[in-house]
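Section 3.1: Structural characterization of target chains.
Under the original work plan, the team committed to producing a structural model for every single-chain target entering the pipeline before any wet-lab resources were allocated. The record below documents one such target. The sequence was received from the expression subgroup and is listed exactly as submitted; it comprises 159 residues.
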Amino acid sequence: MTCSHDPLEGSAYRWSVPHDLRSRDDVERLVVEFYRRAFADPLIGPIFTDIAHMDLGAHLPIMCDFWETVLFRAGVYRRNALQVHRDLHALTPLLPEHFDRWLLVWNGAVDDLFAGEKAQLAKVQADRIAGSIGRRLAGSSGSGFETIGTRPVPREGEA
């Protein structure tokens, strides 16, 4: 069902049944809506606006490349996402609560705009990416799995 007149002009909300992410245009719609919400968020908004001084016009195509590559294996993203976050982390600590909020805002945008297999993948991959970057910034492995450590060698007389 579609409304010919959009009473919420300028809002991400539309009077239509959500469809799955199918194209770069859909990725762009999602990324734009995410940043609209993220910039307005009291916890993570200042990181984007006051710390990173993000030029959204320049940043959006990069993030669309990133998510198009993640979701559709487009191969158009050619940067180092971890290094960007390391540089930002050097300016202000990126803490678990920042990644949690980022995920909340991202998942809300996905759920409000799209439904389907790729929409679910967008949320799963965001969770993996946030976890990996968060762990690496904290000095751990990017993997969520703990590696097997070595056992201490028993001393003579110990079993």
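Residues 1-9, 146-151 have pLDDT under 50 and may be disordered.
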